[in-house]
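Chapter review: from sequence to fold.
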Amino acid sequence: MMNSILMALTGGALIGLAASLMLILNGRVTGISGIVNGFIGDVRKDLWRGAFILGLLIGGLALGALQPDMFVNTSGRSVGVVLIAGLIVGFGTVMGSGCTSGHGVCGIARFSVRSLVATATFMVIGMLTATLFNALVGG
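The token string follows.
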């Protein structure tokens, strides 16, 4: 099994490659929240969005089947808490006009000041929220 540093480097390189290919081949920034939001709005208009989302789901399911130990919940949180947290993140991506993939991966790579500010805001608010949640609920 790969060590954690090699896994992180490999994952980062693959994310960068995928984001670059999306921009080169499709002319679009790989902002997951924007892709999902656009797909929900008009499914027939952009079928590539559905294919992209399906690819993410199939990739996750395949990895789960091949490496189930990578999906062990080590947070100690229930599935319900994790689902609520995911919904809150989804709401935040709408409020922040994007997510960490669009702003953090693609926007910063394009030297966008707006994306740098958005990513810094995401990280600071995320740390504060986790700290507050753990203080109130325990963790």
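Two observations follow directly from the output. The longest helix spans residues 113-137. The chain has a mean pLDDT of 85.
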